[in-house]
Design brief:
The complex is a heterodimer of chains A (605) and B (135). Chain A has 605 residues and is an alpha+beta fold. In chain A, the strands form four sheets. Chain A has a six-stranded mixed sheet. A six-stranded mixed sheet of chain A has the order 8-7-12-9-10-11. Classes of the chains: A alpha+beta (605), B alpha+beta (135).
Chain lengths: 605, 135
């Protein structure tokens, strides 16, 4: 078990290593360990941009050893939601950190000038990087990439959006992966860290090499030779487009509609036929879910010195379902090359594509409804962007100079508070929901999830079971709790969400045995619950109030395949969820409870 | 044992880690006899390389101590006791394909023993492996 934690203090320009065997033994790794460190290191109600605010990156006991265990997790205080920041990235980050000899990395303090944090095994240095400040993530990666024959390098970089502390700026990992969604880019930007480069050239030792080899063979077969992960291998998540559209659950034009006339054109199938180039993957993952598409772009006119442009350059960018929905159907855009161009722009600037798409969708609807005055804006965005103004708007969000765009850079909640139109700002718990207009499960799941993501508890998946008659709306709260308690075991390993059907409790127990950790399914489930409770403790400490979360009318009364959602039913599910969690001993509600309130609806019958 | 379809490589390092598991009982991106070098932007396939089992191995000819010897079927064999004291690393320099790499810990070349694990765990059949008759 790799329990060495590297603590880096940017203000003091110092680092130290501590063996936190206690933590790794009790909490496995990943979110488990990071949540303990977050509670230790983060003062209550801390300003997410203050130097003392910590960022904790963690790997797990199976990192590098088994397939689909290449994720690293980062916990921090989110400047976007004001509470928990939790984000998982693939690429080479986790394995590079583990082979550099660390189980976790904790960053505190703040640099005076732009710096790059370079870790090469035991060598940890801060290098002045003023020349990289202002660059896009692509150029940063190119500058920091080292020619290495063996060993792993991971580069996690912020773009201009992170520098300007856009509250939903991402950290782009190895060009195609992200610590996304909740503003880690801005937190690194505040600390003046342009990038983290990790090179690992050490061994991950195996206590029982023969047991590892035997289990590897078994689990690799599950990953590669069964259809459990085939979806991700073939078309990848973009196969959702046609499935959801057929179901009537593809959010279109700011969640207003749930079928998109351009679905065929923006489908995963069409992307595969037209723009697809290659697949790439995380370290030690044979699945390769990252699909790269190519689009051509004219050189900027100034490069041609006034002559007509005939030469175009080809750019390659990763596409998957969420950014395709956010910058595609949700904006009324269906053309693959245009969607790729918008994704690439977000990636290079270091913006979260999902929130950026939601913000643009909100602006477009607000202009349509007259909530925003186009005369003041000087532009009038329209669905499908016939005037091609979204790229320019995205750049201005990343710049955050103009007061209007600086407000947009604070996310949907703050923008709609300032300008009105919060009833159609697609936001849950301060984050923009993923592209599933499937039903109650997705809405409640995103609302109650620790990181307000569909990956918190797979709410959309019980919706799909409800649509096909295999589950009932009454099952949702129990489903979410059960999912969360197990997913946070996987997130402590740190497994990829896509491998959840491969890593069953039985296999996880077996995998852990091969690395010398003896446990049971029951113990693991308890641990998952404890990890989740830790995350909520942090959320509560930072003032999160689940019962007071605003749900916009747009989502409260969303049209879904099971009909229009009813606010009372939503409330009922949330209440039941809270009751289930409080029964576990977690304090979520801020209201004084009587004994009767704590009874579950079913207990009262 | 050879690389037949390098264009199919996705850069997952399954071969590299299979190799380090087999040869050294560890997971290690540097202690391997097969190499994956990424095109970070992802526009091109990674470069995959390994020993070509030359009939006339430059590495063996360059070895000043006779520690590396050519094998009749191609490729080389290593006598660690003859190799260990050497610090010239002429063999590494001699390899035209740059696929002879020193083990970080033992400072002797890492030799492919043709176990086939890289081929076995490659999800895209980049490698071609067959049991050679008579070996």
């Amino acid at each position: 078990m790799n329990s060495r934690v590297l603590y880096v203090d940017l203000s003091e320009c110092k680092s130290r290593v501590e063996d936190r065997r206690d933590l790794f033994e009790s909490m496995l790794g990943g979110v488990g360990v990071a949540s303990q460190i977050l509670l230790e290191e983060s003062k209550p109600r801390i300003d997410p941009f203050s130097p003392e605010a910590p960022i904790i990156f963690a790997t797990g006991p199976l990192t590098g050893i088994y397939p689909c265990m290449a994720k690293a997790v980062a916990l921090f205080k989110s400047p976007l939601t004001g509470n928990l920041g939790e984000t998982h990235a693939g690429g080479h980050f986790a394995t590079a950190l583990a082979t550099a000899g660390y189980g976790a990395l904790v960053i505190k303090g703040s640099a005076l000038h732009p710096q790059v944090l370079k870790i090469r095994d035991d060598r940890v240095e801060l290098k002045t990087a003023s020349s990289l400040w202002g660059l896009g993530t692509r150029a940063v990666d190119e500058a920091l990439a080292e020619p290495i024959k063996t060993g792993l390098q991971s580069i996690a970089a912020i773009g201009p959006a992170g520098e300007h502390m856009v509250l939903y700026s991402n950290v782009i990992v190895d060009l195609h992966h992200h610590f996304g969604r909740l503003g880690l880019g801005a937190v690194l930007g505040a600390k003046k860290i342009k990038a983290i480069s990790i090179i690992g050239t050490k061994s991950i030792t195996l206590e029982k090499p023969n047991a590892v080899k035997a289990f590897y063979e078994k689990i690799e077969h599950e990953v590669v030779a069964t259809d459990k992960m085939l979806k991700y291998h073939n078309l990848g998540t973009p196969s959702n487009v046609l499935e959801l559209n057929a179901l009537g659950a593809l959010p279109t034009r700011n969640f207003r509609e749930r079928r998109f006339e351009g679905a065929e054109e923006m489908s995963g199938e069409r992307f595969a036929e037209t723009v697809f180039r290659r697949k790439v993957t995380c370290t030690n993952c044979p699945v390769a879910c990252i699909h790269l598409g190519a689009f051509t772009k004219s050189f900027a006119p100034e490069h041609e010195r006034g002559r007509s442009e005939i030469i175009k350059e080809e750019l390659v960018v990763a596409y998957n379902y969420e950014p395709m929905f956010a910058l595609g159907s949700n904006l009324g855009i269906s053309e693959p090359s245009r969607i790729l161009e918008l994704i690439e722009l977000c990636e290079d600037l270091g913006l979260d594509a999902m929130m950026t798409g939601s913000v643009l969708a909100w602006v477009t609807e607000a202009c349509e409804r007259g909530v925003l005055d186009e005369k003041i804006l000087g532009i009038k965005p329209k669905w499908g962007d016939p005037d091609n103004i979204y790229p320019q708007m995205i750049r201005r969000i990343a710049e955050s100079k103009d007061p209007f765009y600086a407000k947009l850079a604070q996310g949907l909640v703050k923008a709609s508070e300032r300008y009105g139109g919060n009833e159609f700002a697609a936001s849950l718990g301060g984050n923009s929901p993923a592209g599933y207009a499937t039903g109650y499960g997705h809405i409640v799941g995103t609302l109650v999830g620790a990181r307000h993501s569909h990956l918190s508890n797979s709410g959309y998946s019980i919706d799909q079971q409800i649509i096909s008659g295999k589950a009932k709306v009454d099952d949702i709260a129990e489903f979410l709790v059960r999912q969360e308690n197990w997913l946070y075991v996987l997130y402590s390993l740190v497994a990829c969400y896509f491998s959840r059907s491969v890593y069953t409790p039985e296999y996880v127990v077996e995998a852990l045995t091969t690395v010398g950790i003896n446990t049971t399914k029951e113990e693991l489930e308890k641990l998952g619950m404890k990890v989740f409770h830790n995350l909520y403790k942090f959320k509560m400490q930072e003032g999160f109030d689940l019962e007071k979360q605003y749900i916009p009318k747009l989502l409260k009364e969303l049209d879904t395949p099971i009909g229009r959602l009813e606010p009372q039913t939503l409330n009922k599910i949330v209440k039941r969820y809270i009751a289930l969690r409080e029964r576990e001993g977690l304090k979520i509600s801020r209201e004084e409870k009587t004994l009767a309130d704590l009874l579950l609806p079913s207990d009262k019958d | 044992m050879e690389i037949r379809n390098p264009a199919r490589c996705i850069g997952c390092y399954s071969c590299v880690f299979a190799c380090s598991r087999h040869l050294f009982n560890v997971v290690d991106p540097t202690r391997t006899a097969v190499f994956v070098e990424l095109d970070r932007k992802g526009g091109r396939a990674p470069k995959v390389s390994m020993c070509r089992f030359c009939k006339e191995p430059e590495c063996a000819y360059a070895c000043p101590h006779g520690a590396l010897q050519p094998l009749p079927e191609g490729g080389i064999t290593l006598t660690p006791s003859k190799c260990a004291p050497c610090t010239t690393y002429d063999c590494v320099e001699a390899c035209q394909y740059k696929v002879l790499v020193l083990d970080r810990e033992k400072k002797i070349p890492i030799l492919c023993d043709r176990c086939g694990d890289c081929a076995k765990y490659c999800p895209h059949n980049v490698f071609w492996y067959t049991e050679a008759p008579g070996i």
